[in-house]
Amino acid sequence: MQAISTQKFVRIAPRKLRLIADMVRGKSVSEVLEALPFVRKDAVKPVEKVIKSASANAKVKGANPAELVISKIEISEGPRLKRFRPVSRGQAHGYVRAMSHIKVVVTTKSEARNPKSEIKTENTKINKKKEGEK
């Protein structure tokens, strides 16, 4: 059984969120929720919120919360806010405020697949195609 939760337009850059996403990918939900409060990054709060939401969605569907595993977590780029800061001599320097979209897919341990093995098989298929083309 899968449960999905998304959070859009989070006002944190995707690069910062991906550090946390890489840390929690493939681990059990209970283990992650115990460890995240000790990570000293501001990006932990929105990721933790989405994981809790996905866990609650799975619980509503009838899954045992102790058996849940984060099978997939995606951090994608959202829109960018263009801003400027006034500087000397009447000039302005522009900068960009990035937003992110977070998507978490939670499954039970029996249905969870190993994401590392999928990546290896995909890469070997791609490498074989490239070798055949040469």
Automatic annotation (TrEMBL):
Alphabetical GO biological process terms: translation
Comp. bias regions, Basic and acidic residues: 110-134
Gene Ontology, cellular component aspect: cytosolic large ribosomal subunit
Keywords: Ribonucleoprotein, Ribosomal protein, RNA-binding, rRNA-binding
SUPFAM superfamilies to which the protein is assigned, alphabetical: Ribosomal protein L22 (SSF54843)
Record flagged with keyword rRNA-binding: yes
Subunit structure: Part of the 50S ribosomal subunit.
Function comment: This protein binds specifically to 23S rRNA; its binding is stimulated by other ribosomal proteins, e.g., L4, L17, and L20. It is important during the early stages of 50S assembly. It makes multiple contacts with different domains of the 23S rRNA in the assembled 50S subunit and ribosome. The globular domain of the protein is located near the polypeptide exit tunnel on the outside of the subunit, while an extended beta-hairpin is found that lines the wall of the exit tunnel in the center of the 70S ribosome.
HAMAP family linked to this entry: Ribosomal_uL22_B
Stated name of the protein: Large ribosomal subunit protein uL22
Gene, per the UniProt record: rplV
